[in-house]
Amino acid sequence: MDSLEVLENKGYTSIAEAEREEWFLEGLLEGEAKGKAEGFLDGEIKGINDAKREMAKAMLLKGYPISDIAIISGLSEEEIKDL
């Protein structure tokens, strides 16, 4: 059985068609992996920012000055006032 017969058995009419399908699938997998990585990173950033806000809220309740909370948390004074 030659290469073209193998391709035809898999439903392809030419080598070019099989290559296009392979490139498409590779692109799809790369895009999916990139999307997952970006989503994971977005989630990590959100979690870090949520933790900063929770810490700042606790510090406000304990009476820390807003300027100190800003330095320690990395949040702006405006963000802290909005809590």
Supply the number of structural domains: 1
Order of helices and strands: HHHH
Helix content: over 70%
Low-confidence stretches: none
Q: Report the portion of residues in β strands.
A: under 5%
DSSP helical segment count: 4
Largest beta-sheet details:
none
- Tell me, briefly, the overall form: rod-shaped
Distance between the termini: 71 Å
Mean pLDDT: 90
| Alpha carbon gyration radius | 27 Å
Total beta strands? 0
* Structural class category: mainly alpha
Walkthrough of the structure:
This protein is mainly α and 83 residues long. The protein has one domain. Helix content is 81%, strand content 0%. Helix 2 (15-61) runs antiparallel to helix 3 (66-73). The longest helix has 47 residues, at 15-61. The radius of gyration is 27 Å and the shape is rod-shaped. The model has no long low-confidence stretch (mean pLDDT 90).
Q: Could you list some keywords that capture this structure?
A:
single chain, mainly alpha, 83 residues, 4 helices
List the helices and strands and how they pair.
Layout lengths: L2 H7 L5 H47 L4 H8 L3 H5 L2
Q: Brief overview, please?
A:
With 83 residues, this protein is mainly alpha-helical. It is built from four helices and no strands. It starts with a helix and ends with a helix.
